[in-house]
Design brief:
The protein is mostly beta strands. The protein has two helices and 32 strands. It is 2% helix and 42% strand.
Length: 427
């Protein structure tokens, strides 16, 4: 068997199940995913039918929170993995994760009682609110064929209650080149690559497609395309120049696009993608009818034509920590724009929040006193992503004030990193 350095093959695999990918020392990457079911049948029955809650070690006797039903969650989740482990080259645990109460520390899990794995920092230990999508390398030899136990834990740190939530989780298994399922299905002979009309120069609406052997066409269910570029940090991993896209309730979002019909073409609208200091890339994930997926090599060296109208992203220069409004506690932030914004032809607001509700407040979020809808209006207790056009007359040269306000007694609205951002396109 070929020796494959484990860490090298997982170098970029920390914050998106698809977009970052598990880097593998091979020209072909086939993988399968095994998702947890939070329904009590293969779980610990502490929160049947709900998300997985994780508490610090002493909350059970906390005089304020110990009687709450959330405090009874034991942080244990079982995942069924029906794989022959001898056919698996590498693996990772993927999480859709609310980062927890600000200043919760040392989020971690133990795999099958064998080894403790750290969950990457998302800003919560430093006092921020967060939602992220880490993909954590795990050792194949510590898995078992069948039920696998993931025991999660955290420390209280300086928080009032050490607590975080996992909405979904999956184990991703990369298959070896000689895996029997690849041989039996004929996929061992499959390869594909991304192509862009116009070569490596991206138009405002770039057409992207897949080159693949035509004999496999009936086996392909869909093709999803991912872009690597400098832009809004949509998956909350602290990186702007990154592969973009993540899952929400197991469904992919914020990708370039998906096609489920041959010839699997999509159009990438790059109109508001910021100016790039480095070349961009595209890769695709091909989903087959038998549940196996294939990740293409990246098509690198993509660029915008020159000249191109300038597109710039502006971030908050001042932002509270945590940026969390509840119980009539108003929070403010400042965005600095150029002194001359007369040349702006388009402006977009991008915001990530965890929506615990605005209570009776009708306009919970404002830019320079002008309301923009960024919540669900239903207190969904989930991530809400907003990408909306901003009226040019609502922006000021220089300082722009953002206000967040909720009067609900519990939870409220959590502004997630990187905070509200404005993307402007100039003439």
């Amino acid at each position: 068997m070929r020796a494959v350095p484990f860490l090298k093959c997982l170098t970029l695999a920390f914050f998106s199940l698809y977009a970052s990918g598990i880097e593998r020392c091979s020209s072909q990457v086939f993988f399968r995913e095994h998702w947890a079911e939070f329904d009590g049948r293969v779980n610990n029955n502490t929160n049947p039918g709900e998300r997985l809650r994780v508490n610090d070690a002493s909350v059970s006797l906390h005089e304020t929170f110990g009687k709450r039903p959330e405090a009874r969650a034991n942080g244990l989740q079982l995942i069924q993995i029906p794989e022959d482990l001898f056919g698996i080259e590498s693996a990772g645990l993927y999480l859709e994760m609310w980062g927890g109460h600000p200043e919760t520390e040392n989020k971690r899990f133990i795999l099958n009682g064998k080894e403790t794995y750290r969950i990457p920092e998302d800003g919560v230990s430093d006092g921020h609110c967060a939602y992220s999508y880490p993909l954590i390398p795990i050792k194949v030899e510590q898995l078992v064929t069948g039920l696998n136990a993931f025991q999660f834990a955290c420390d209280r740190g300086k928080s009032f209650w050490g607590h975080f939530i996992i909405d979904n989780m999956a184990v991703r298994c990369v298959l070896k080149d000689d895996h029997p399922d690849l041989q039996a299905s004929g996929l061992s002979g499959f390869s594909a690559q991304v192509q862009v009309d116009g070569g490596r120069v991206l138009a405002d609406n770039a057409t992207i497609s897949l080159l693949y052997p035509e004999r496999f066409q009936t086996n392909i269910v869909s093709v999803e395309y991912f872009g690597r570029y400098s832009g809004f940090d949509d998956n909350g991993n602290g990186l702007e120049n990154d592969w973009h896209g993540y899952t929400h309730n197991r469904n992919l979002t914020r990708t370039i696009g998906m096609s489920d019909e041959p010839p699997f073409k999509v159009v990438w609208d790059t109109w508001m993608v910021p100016d790039q200091g480095s070349a961009m890339g595209i890769r695709a994930v091909v989903r087959f009818a038998n549940g196996i997926r294939y990740e293409t090599p990246a098509l690198d060296g993509l660029r915008f034509p020159g000249p191109r109208n300038r597109v710039i992203i502006f971030r908050c220069t001042e932002m509270p920590k945590p940026f969390w409004s509840r119980d009539k506690n108003e929070k403010k932030a400042v965005l600095l724009l150029p002194d001359d914004i007369s040349g702006v032809v388009s402006a977009r607001l991008m915001v990530r929040i965890w929506d615990g509700g605005e209570g009776e407040v009708r306009e919970p979020f404002k830019v320079n006193g002008h309301a923009y809808a960024i919540t669900s209006g239903k207190a969904v207790h989930d991530l809400v992503f907003t990408d909306v056009e901003v009226r040019r007359e609502h922006l000021n040269p220089g300082e722009n004030t953002v206000i967040l306000y909720s009067d609900t007694e519990h939870h409220g609205i959590e502004m997630l990193p990187p905070g509200p951002c404005l993307i402007l396109r100039f003439r």
